[in-house]
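Give me the fold.
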Amino acid sequence: MYRFLPGVYTIELFAVLVGRTRPLKLRSVELTLTEMQAARLHDDATAGLYFDWSPETGRYHGHIDNAKLPDPPAMILFPQSPSNEPGRSKHETESPMKTLDK
């Protein structure tokens, strides 16, 4: 796992356009990670760092949140196809739709 250290990080977004040889820089954003935020990320595996835009300051401000992944949905179990049952003929196990198509 990557350990983020306190400081200022610069995120640069580039695009490569068809027919051009050089990438085009679209945006550059500075994000500040405080010592407290860095320590919390290191100490708590469930902590996440999120940045929200503040129109008043014209900057992104970071905050820690303990985001828990949602529980996986309950599994739906389907009965096994009768075609896997030993001793049944192919005709007995075909679906009615397949029989009508013949």
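The first helix runs from residue 35 to 43.
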